[in-house]
């Protein structure tokens, strides 16, 4: 069960590549690695805590008003995360801006509350929320890394907002002019399309190999062994 939850969140039901949920931060906050990781970490915390709270309280929540109650729980936890980031990482908080409160409107969070947390124990629900959030965060960071590298020739711009004393990494020489479209909104669409295609190709290749092994195994088992008649 635990292995299935982890695999679903990170790969099989990845919200950024399969379900295509939570597109607001995917397209808006992936101009660089730092902003992508920041909004991703906030989403992980909100999803894990929301799932845990809803699972813990599910027997007390009337079915008819469950959605408003879920949203109220989400909004309360997002407010806690918002105020905490304002106090602890204010520079990053200012960069992320309105996208932290907008986690409340992320359909991924509500979908997991309805599909999993309302039917399963608290710890498993918290794990499901964390893994779904982590799967989205990995997509965000991959998008941010590709777009930042192609667009500017560097990585981790603004990392000091998360890790004091750290510095950005300049990979390409100063003569690199940059590819502006990569860090503009169209770049997010193109890069996301590339990642979705790559994921589908890996999955198709894996299925093809598994099928070939199954066919080979079936052929080996079904082939009768003729005894020697010497």
Task: Summarize it.
The chain has helices at residues 2-12, 15-19, 23-28, 33-57, 66-88, 90-96, 107-117, 122-152, 185-222, and strands at 154-155, 169-170.
Structure description:
- This protein has 230 residues and is mainly α.
- The protein has one domain.
- The chain contains nine helices and two strands.
- The chain has helices at residues 2-12, 15-19, 23-28, 33-57, 66-88, 90-96, 107-117, 122-152, 185-222; strands spanning 154-155, 169-170.
- It has a two-stranded antiparallel sheet.
- Helix 1 (2-12) packs parallel to helix 8 (122-152).
- The longest helix is centred in the last third of the chain and has 38 residues, at 185-222.
- The model has no long low-confidence stretch (mean pLDDT 90).
For this entry, what is the oligomeric state of its chains? Answer: single chain
Helix/strand class = mainly alpha
**Element pattern in H and E:** HHHHHHHHEEH
Give the overall form.
flat
The overall pLDDT, averaged over residues, is 90
Strand order of the largest sheet: 1-2
- Strand residue percentage: under 5%
Helix content: 55-70%
Distance between the termini: 54 Å
Number of domains: 1
| Count of DSSP-assigned helices | 9
Compute the number of strand runs: 2
Task: Give me the Rg, rounded.
Answer: 22 Å
Poorly predicted regions are none
Largest sheet: 2 strands, antiparallel
